[in-house]
Amino acid sequence: MTKTAADFLLKVKSAIAEYDMMSGAERVCAALSGGADSVSLLLALRELQDELGAEICACHLNHGLRGEESDGDERFCRDLFERLNVPFYSEKIDVSADVSKHESLEEAARRMRYEFFGRALRHFGGAVLATAHNANDNAETVLLNLTRGTALKGLCGIPPVRTFGNGEFKVIRPLIGCTRAEIEDYLRVKSQNFVTDKTNLSEDYTRNRIRMRILPELAEINPSIVGTIGRMTEKLRADSDFLDSLAEKALRETRDGRGWNALKLSEQPMPVKSRAVRQILINGGVEPSSLRIDTAVSLLGKRSARFNPCKDRFFTIRKGVCFVEKSVQNYGAYKER
Prior knowledge:
The chain is an alpha/beta fold and about 325 residues long. The chain folds into two domains: about 5-230, HUPs (Rossmann fold), CATH 3.40.50.620; about 255-335, Chorismate Mutase Domain, subunit A (Up-down Bundle). Helices cover about 50% and strands about 15% of the residues. The strands form two sheets. Strands 3-2-1-4-6-5 form a six-stranded mixed β-sheet, with helices on both faces. A six-stranded antiparallel β-sheet has the order 7-8-11-10-9-12. A hairpin with a 2-residue loop joins β7 (about 255) and β8. α6 crosses α10. The N and C termini lie far apart (about 70 Å).
């Protein structure tokens, strides 16, 4: 094994160990798009399979958004799965046919992608999901959040470990400490090809402009900018985790039947109550955007209020108790009394 490949695998192993990614995992399912990042992830996990003591499997979702190009990506992934002798699960869906009234195409694709991940993990008996988010992705995410306006959560970047499906499934990011240059070097040494999504080369998308213009400019000022942002996000995540623990305490102390005492939550400091509301929305099946969180927080002092953040979900305050309920009704702005 060359030094480049050995160093790359060492970084992957170090991230897995540092963030305790593999605790209790009997198998790991790598999410494969066919791009360089996900291909390097699958190859690295496959090489480390014996050391990790977990079976490596994989999944691929064809979104059907790029026609023949998407189908070509699926064929590439299937060929790679078979060559590596990796068990896999795949589906083809039509994202554009299932966009709800309150979603953008991007939001719908993300929702359906995680629904697919849930099905894939159940297929493999509750495997841990590994995604290929890396150090460059983390830096791009922080800069993207800055351009849109963000709170502390947005500056924390991409968490190395998180859960989805109401905590049912675990997501790990073994490449979070690897730069894109290191990923490409690893694939070059392994003589492994990959597919390129042409939309990633278009500057019509904000993230692509950050990748292709802003990060290179910042690297002229600080050649280690990706690592610098990575270290910053680690420190900010520690602060954010502490505030999350205070929000969890507030939720425990304000629990009231099917929901939470809205007035008592409203008396909490803003960083705590916004996090508490965020968790209430997540528990209720609502994607917690800043606008949705801020709107819900603004209602906490009411004894009775309601607003509709997404399809069939309402953030409701009834007799001073707040909760998310599922209800099929006409959509509109929140109502209050």
